[in-house]
Amino acid sequence: MMVHEGVFNRLLIWTLAILALLVIYAPPLYLVAISFNASLQPGLPGLSDLTLRWYAALPKETALINALWQSLVIAFFTALFATVLSLLAALSYFELKMARSLWFLAMVLPMFVPGVIQGLALSAIFTHSGIKSSAMTVVAGHLLWAMPFAFIVILTSFSAVKPSYLMAADDLGASRWRQFRDITLPLIRPGLTSAFIFAFLLSLNEFTRAFYLSGRQNTLPVALFGKMNSGASPVIYAISGAIFLLSILIVVSVLQKAGRARAR
Amino acid sequence: MPFRRTLLIAPPLAVVALIGVVPLALVVLWSFWTWDPATYWIKPDLSLAGYAGILNAGRWTVILSTLVKSFGAALLCSLLAYPLSYAIHVMAGPRIQMLLLALMTIPFFTSYLIRSFSWRLVLGRTGAINETLQALHITSAPLDWLLFSNFAVFIGFVASYLPFAVFPLLLSMRRIPPELMAAARDLGAGFWRAFFTILVPLTYAGLFAGFLFVFVMVAGSSTEVQMLGGAGASIVSVMINDVMRVANYPLAFAISVVMLITIFGMVLIGNAFFKLSGLFGEDAE
């Protein structure tokens, strides 16, 4: 867009934009910085007293480590199911003609169901039909949270599949399955990978639903929530900071890969 | 071939129905049942006790204040999202644009819990802001209203849900032909005139969708209030947690039904005005 905002207006708009970014990023990055401070009191560390001691102390926190394992297992299965189901949902979307926007709505609406209500409803059903809380009950809750995102990512990746490709293959006698396997699937594979990773992260970081659905073994966010409210310690800063940074790195690498794929 | 179509549609539909629709439908049904102290569960005697409970102990005021908070947060996020989206779409060069888009995507996939918690370290009595203010001798004692207050909760909302307002706006800005703003300039309109008479009206749809997304997310949120709210602070999701502490299922279900109707009502009304599927580059029909 060719626009001349003028210096003052440009400055004003950038100031507001940077302010908004600071609101999102400054505190978690401050938390990460604090986690390298040797002192028990939260504060920015000086360059001379940077330490990894709180990170070194993490393996001894067995409750947190067990919770982390539980979260990783749940995130893996959530991501797996979410990706496969969303792929089917996206394929259905293109099969449907009249009911497309209805189908889209049905797949995306679960995102807006409040976590507490979804968690409570599922846990009431599980308890009273004799299903014990476990990793799989959390997966059930997380699936509804992750699927809308996975669905949108996969749906977007279908823009790489030009209808002419499929028509050409059809003319050359390829079956529908063959068209899917040899044309559609390779073209949307980056989308499937992104969907899997995003669903994994959504599950790994989800708290409200897991709060209702996890059994004796807490997930990491549920364990963290308890610790945060009973006097936070630098170890909490360390694990929170590590999870936050790791999530960022993973998202950035997915976006970079997608960007490179688009450039090609 | 209808068989193939059924094979594709059935699994995702079954999952959404089984773990999404059925539980919520049961919540609606169960909200009319009676609390049974013998089993700590409910029995199928028709009762409106749950709904009557909403009118007790000021619970309806929590619902009302949740809606006010959602409205306020949605307004705040929309106001901030506009300059941010404009900076991303119009003012940033390609590299900065990529960076900003990444920075807007990341929050969806990081922990709301950790991000809300980190504000405690900034806003607390010994937090970064109070320490700085005192070191600069601007204040002599820590400001107490910074943390565990509505102020903190609203900051938490913006930090958590701002990206939900940015993306719909970006998508609707991308649909505006670039020549339009330039034409307005050529015809002598100043920046703000072109901004308010051309850009803003053409992005109403994205603005509205973003407002709606934030409203709905805040209405169903709990983490920000749990981490940053004061002693008396509440929001519907936290109230449901409290009600469930004494296993008052009918009341918890009744509150849930009121919230679900509100949220889905808003989303469906929004969808009628502006097809959500159109947002994602799909045929808006």
What does this structure look like?
The complex is a heterodimer of chains A (264) and B (285). Chain A has 264 residues and is mainly alpha-helical. Chain A has a domain of 173 residues: MetI-like fold (Orthogonal Bundle), CATH 1.10.3720. Chain A is built from eleven helices and no strands. In chain A, helix 1 packs across helix 11, helix 3 packs across helix 6 and helix 6 crosses helix 8. The radius of gyration of chain A is 23 Å and the shape is globular. Chain B is mostly helical and 285 residues long. Chain B has a domain of 165 residues: MetI-like (MetI-like fold, Orthogonal Bundle), CATH 1.10.3720.10. A two-stranded antiparallel ribbon of chain B has the order 1-2. Chains A and B meet through helix 1, helix 3, helix 4, helix 5 and helix 6 of A and helix 1, helix 3, helix 4, helix 5 and helix 7 of B.
Indicate the proportion of strand residues of chain A: under 5%
CATH superfamily (homologous) name of the domain at 62-234 in chain A: MetI-like
CATH topological fold name of the domain at 62-234 in chain A: MetI-like fold
How is the CATH topology of the domain at 70-234 in chain B named?
Answer: MetI-like fold
Number of helices of chain B: 14
CATH architecture annotation name of the domain at 62-234 in chain A = Orthogonal Bundle
Q: Uncertain spans of chain B, ≥5 residues at pLDDT below 50?
A: none
Which percent bin holds the helix content of chain B? Answer: over 70%
Mean pLDDT across residues of chain B: 90
Number of strands of chain B: 2
Overall morphology of chain A: globular
CATH top level label of the domain at 62-234 in chain A: Mainly Alpha
Spatial shape of chain B: globular
Q: Which ranges of chain A are low-confidence, i.e. pLDDT below 50, for 5 or more consecutive residues?
A: none
Number of helices of chain A: 11
Question: What amount of the residues of chain B lies in strands?
Answer: under 5%
Q: Which structural class best describes the helix and strand composition of chain B?
A: mainly alpha
Q: List the secondary-structure elements of chain B in sequence, H or E.
A: HEEHHHHHHHHHHHHH
What is the helix content of chain A? over 70%
Rg calc of chain A: 23 Å
